[in-house]
Amino acid sequence: MNKIKIFIQANAHCNLDSLPLRFGFLYPNDRIIEIEPISNELSANRPDRFMIEAWITNPDTNEKVSGKFVLTRELKQCAHILVTAWRYDDDSEYYLSEVIRLLRKQEAITPQWLLDNHRLYLAGELRSHADLIRLLATKLSAESIGEIRSKISDLMEELKNLRAENDRLQRELDAALADGNSLQIADQAILELVEENILHRGSHCTKLTMSDGRKWYMKTKTFDRLGAVTRKAKTLIGKKVRITSWDPISSPGKWSSQGYFRNLYLDQV
Length: 269
Known about the structure:
Elements (H helix, E strand, L loop, with lengths): L3 E5 L4 H11 L7 E7 L4 E2 L5 E9 L6 E13 L2 E8 L3 H16 L5 H6 L1 H5 L6 H8 L5 H37 L2 E5 L3 E12 L2 E8 L4 E5 H4 L4 H8 L4 E9 L14 E6 L1
Parallel strand pairs: 1-6
Antiparallel strand pairs: 1-2, 2-4, 3-4, 4-5, 5-6, 7-11, 8-9, 8-11, 9-10, 11-12
Helix pairs in contact: 1-2, 2-6
């Protein structure tokens, strides 16, 4: 198989969390590298991403290490953006990734700490969020550990919701294709405002205002008669979301380019 170019963002989750713990290195700056595929394209449970098993080369030792890499379909500088990576059980490592991200943002751990504990990951002693809590318990106070446990419990519930959202998005993709449409997914943004019964081009619409200034409209009489999408939108105010639009396969951009949407999804906790 041909090598795949991937774009690694130095300040993003994968480089700060996944690579140091699971692969024993990280990059100080943004970097485009190549990985060597072992498998064909695998599902990443999101239509805008895919997963592939591949070899990656440790830049410090030149050792090749295999892993599973989640990549965006969208290209940046002609390379797929690396979202996350792991080496063993998909489910437990998924939750571990998000817990690590949470604890790093709260400064309970650092990328260097993860590098230092890479050996424990290889030995199978740091492969789940429960392993991580046991390890942190040796260096943090009981009060701090209690707070971390509470935050992780909340995070787990949100992650379950996020997985349900990804499943729902996949069902929408299937429905769009079955109806002769392509599913367009807008760039992630924070939903700031939801307004009902806004008159737009002669139709009453639900209007979404995003943190990047974009406005999205849905003709409720046609696409949200029972108000389910509007109610969902109100629960996501202040959160990072993805907006979807349906365009006829024969007319790319027909509706998405005009700011019409069909649904929205929680994108990141």
